[in-house]
Here is the input.
Amino acid sequence: MVMSLEIVSSNKSFGGWHKRYKHRSSSLNCDMVFAVYLPPQAEQGAKLPVLYWLSGLTCTDENFMQKAGAQRMAAELGLIIVAPDTSPRGEGVADDANGAYDFGLGAGFYLNATQEPFARHYRMYDYVVQELPALIEANFPVSDKRGIAGHSMGGHGALICALKNPGRYQSVSAFSPISNPMNCPWGEKAFSLYLGEERSRWREWDASVLVAEASEKLPILVDQGDRDDFLEGQLKPQTLQAAAKAAGHPLTLRMQPGYDHSYYFIASFIDDHLRHHAEALA
Amino acid sequence: MVMSLEIVSSNKSFGGWHKRYKHRSSSLNCDMVFAVYLPPQAEQGAKLPVLYWLSGLTCTDENFMQKAGAQRMAAELGLIIVAPDTSPRGEGVADDANGAYDFGLGAGFYLNATQEPFARHYRMYDYVVQELPALIEANFPVSDKRGIAGHSMGGHGALICALKNPGRYQSVSAFSPISNPMNCPWGEKAFSLYLGEERSRWREWDASVLVAEASEKLPILVDQGDRDDFLEGQLKPQTLQAAAKAAGHPLTLRMQPGYDHSYYFIASFIDDHLRHHAEALA
Here is the structure.
């Protein structure tokens, strides 16, 4: 098995370790960096559940680990957290034609692109669902329990990964997810360029469509700030809520008064999400 | 009183507000930005104690607020936190001749410069001890209790501000402070250029000197990682510890095994520091 990890950095944090690793990704055809938080229990021989955190537009593995304040509670709960990057990277990886923040580098949308010039590298779905967990499970003291969560574009990613893979995840949650990407400007741009103009092909990457057909009814926790500038135009959690309700899919949408789209919002409620995952992954 | 504040940004955080303000500083002769965390109690009519946080080399007001994870406990304790920038800023403010990170912009060292071309703007000591508290006390619901803390260069700043001003602060703490700046490369460079080559003038800005003469014995809490790359060459907390011991000044130096100089270290122990301050400021 050729899945070598090169350590990039290591910082002790809440009695555990925040580590960054570089590796060659076969899904993405490029080198990738990811971060992992290993709580203190990881050094004591325990097999721990893993929460995969998917970040939003423009982020790398670093934003969540630096700004969410998740390590304190992860250390208390004995939860490993893995944070991948948000797109393939490096020379030869196609980017937005105008370098826009909402497409290409930093904006992989957690799908498998079918359109050139993106299909060669942009396979973040395969990376997040298959390759990265295989790497984690081969190299770290993990149990067979997986949770997935994310923010904004990463909230969309967490939802579709869970909804498309019954049995693979035991918990899912999202902050401010792009809930119906087929019908918002960010999603329409990304899906057009990654998947082509045929809208019927977009349906398998849209949480509000997928939730209607999900065979597994994994309870979904969503937090959303009501002063989020992207709420009406891009995020549309009510569309997901309505689709879940119609399908009898358990979803808790908490509208948080006064909160915006930033990591100050995420930090304020991350403990609730970590507990939600830890309970399901125990 | 002309002390107008221009709001730069506002984010709800743990039921309170993280706000950034811009104002004209008369001490520094330039526009400055600072951040304030107002816990939920600030909207309920309470007069709250204030903790001033001084950041380290290269930082602005943002590093601490984004990375330390302090808001959760500050909200619980009802503590206002104020984070100034680390130097004067803007056009006309002299910088390091080679743009080095350890002097000039982002490296004001919390002293009053006497040497040209720095004396015109680099008066961070006056700014932090006098101007900024006056501004805070005129504009926010604060009690007359003040604490001061900081990291690295900001740990040095917190120590000297407290030691030089008996009665002004009721609590002090530091992470990884530059404890004897007269005798380390960072401090020797900064003091030479800000204060001139006459080393006897440096003594009033060095915590390990000041602690020997302090009339007020305010208990000092210091956390220091033992895998901090700057420990031996720059920080020298043992020098401060020895000086405090000789003077009978209460100082708790906690060597934290495995921790480095980063905000991952600060985040791991910030709650202890906030409690240390809240108890003294109650």
Remarks:
- Strands of chain A lie at 6-13, 16-25, 30-38, 48-54, 80-83, 142-151, 171-175, 220-225, 251-256.
- Chain A has nine helices and nine strands.
